[in-house]
Design a protein that fits this description.
The chain has one domain: Molybdenum Cofactor Biosythetic Enzyme, Chain A. Helices cover 42% and strands 20% of the residues. It is built from seven helices and six strands, in the order E-H-H-E-H-E-H-E-H-E-E-H-H. Strands 2-1-3-6-5-4 form a six-stranded mixed beta sheet, sandwiched between helices. Helix 2 runs parallel beside helix 6, helix 3 packs across helix 4 and helix 5 packs across helix 6.
Length: 163
């Protein structure tokens, strides 16, 4: 059972000016896998607030995977990668590379993604695009490896059987 946290990063959604569609879309996909969504939250595009939430959630031990949605583009307030980089202890570049490669098959705008992924303690943190379609498509790209990733992060002896 994989335990997820979902952080939507959007000034407008945080202020209530736009409904968050990405967070619920990701939650729907996660629940369809029979996994758990422990917490969902909307934050403004504020690097300090994002860093704090990512660190607190990771350090709590309640989450196996934290997904951020939004804040991965070129806009000045898009700071998800910087906030994530500040809290992770180890990079996992293959996940972001796979998501961009798959997205490039659908849109050339995938080249504009600055999303990263990494590990803090035993929690995997993955940046996803802000659009519901892009967020779900990117998560679908890495979905198949998440159980094994979580096994490895938790030193599960069964992880060796899937190598």
């Amino acid at each position: 059972m994989i335990r997820f946290g979902i952080l939507t990063l959007s000034d407008r959604s945080f202020r209530g000016e736009r409904e968050d569609a990405s967070g619920p879309a990701l939650a729907h996909l996660i629940l369809a896998q029979n996994w758990l969504v422990i917490k969902q939250q909307i934050l403004p595009d504020d690097e300090s607030a994002i860093r704090t939430a990512l660190a607190d959630w990771s350090d709590s031990g309640k989450f196996d995977v934290i997904l951020t949605t939004g804040g991965t583009g070129f806009a000045l307030r898009d700071v998800a990668p910087e906030a994530t980089r500040a809290v992770i202890q180890r990079d996992t570049p293959g996940l972001a590379e796979a998501m961009r490669a798959e997205s490039l098959k659908k849109t050339s705008h995938a080249m504009l993604s600055r999303a990263i992924a990494g590990i803090r303690r035993r929690t995997l943190i993955v940046n996803l695009p802000g659009s519901p379609k892009g967020a779900v498509e990117n998560l679908q790209t890495i979905l198949s490896v998440l159980p094994h990733a979580v096994q490895l992060l938790n030193d599960d002896p069964a992880s060796e059987s899937t190598h």
